[in-house]
Amino acid sequence: MGAALRSCAARDRVRHLSGGRPDARDVARAIDALRRGWPISIDSIGLLAIETSDEARLADFDSGGLSDILLSGNRAATLKLVNQIEAVPTAPVRIERSPWLDLAAATALADPALDLATPLKGPFKTLPLSNGPVAEAALRLARLAGLLPAYFVGGSGDFAAHLAAPDVMAAGHARDLRIAARARLPLEGIERSEIVAFRGDDDTGEHVALLIGAPDGRPPLVRLHSECLTGDVFGSLKCDCGPQLAAALQSIDQAGWGILLYLRQEGRSIGLVNKLRAYELQDQGFDTVDANLRLGFQDDERDFAPAARMLERLGQRRVRLLTNNPRKVAALQAEGIEVVERVPHRMVANPHNQRYLATKRDRSGHQL
Length: 368
Ligand SMILES: Nc1nc2c(ncn2[C@@H]2O[C@H](COP(=O)(O)OP(=O)(O)OP(=O)(O)O)[C@@H](O)[C@H]2O)c(=O)[nH]1
Ligand SMILES: [Zn+2]
Fold this sequence. Notes:
By secondary structure, the chain is an alpha/beta fold. The chain folds into two domains: 3-170, no CATH class; 178-265 and 302-363, Rossmann fold. The protein has helices spanning 3-17, 22-36, 55-61, 73-78, 103-110, 132-144, 165-170, 229-233, 241-255, 266-269, 272-283, 288-295, 305-313, 326-334, 354-363, and strands spanning 40-42, 45-49, 68-71, 93-95, 126-127, 150-153, 162-163, 178-184, 193-199, 208-213, 221-226, 257-263, 318-322, 338-343. A hairpin with an 8-residue loop joins strand 9 and strand 10 (208-213). The longest helix has 15 residues, at 3-17. The protein binds guanosine-5'-triphosphate and zinc ion. Zinc ion is lined by residues 228, 230-231, 239, 241. Zinc ion binds next to helix 8.
């Protein structure tokens, strides 16, 4: 077999293993590497996540000369480190390292937990972003890994994964969701229920659908529920997720038939650890939106395309949607699902979630 043919066969095998796209494997490997504190490269630029770095790893990464620091635009704006060169407030920011900007100082830049307690050192010098797409891709990858969006950038080392920026931007959208398993799942008070689990080639979570009742020709009542460990499992009073989940199942049952999609979008897709960091900031007085921005994220990072793919797989392109969030309606419509009606899904507030609900109404456009 010639070399060309051999590499063709190898590529086909990789494509088969990754469920369609060879690069999905590199993205998965990179997410794993970042969590373990291993450096990766995107378009040949070295990246080491600050959160999982340590002195030895940073010394290795810096061995060819001091690396710089990469922060998200929102984190940089919080720190008042405007990017003088880009002049776009939301663009990522690259900061020049000097010897005093060590791991501890870099951690203070990355992690807002100490913002109020420790005044920032400085002065910081921002550099032109030589490669915007690499920065965007790196920050997206950190979020997919559930890490703080902040890196040492431009160092050298034995990279655990080599990626191309467009492949990172294409990853994690769950375009190829398939039904992996389905079974009858009688619930307390709702016995006519079936659970359907989905898997995709590059999605990190396993989304599930609960089908309740029997199709009767009308568009189903559908609820898109984003995972909330604290609310769904522990009954946290900080949000309204637990009561919303229970009430959605009741409403669907009463409607005769419908579907609840349980989407693995913990913390509006910033991950559990980052959501708990947001809670820590909320204890300091910041609201839900500002807490996310201080961490370096958008206030809502969710992508509802997977929900549309699940509904398609279930044969439902017209739905009645149970939500107060107009973004969910718009996102489903943009993905080709017709929302024939929005059905409000309001819960009674408690003393702990009053501010959370007010922020949803006043800053996130929820119709409460
Ligand atoms: N980042 C962050 N996520 C939160 C916070 N509180 C709840 N969440 C997450 O928010 C998601 C629930 O979404 P919400 O934005 O509260 O409500 P919604 O689903 O958009 O709107 P409705 O359909 O009207 O209920 C879940 O993934 C929760 O884990 C918080 O303070 N910070
Ligand atoms: Zn919640």
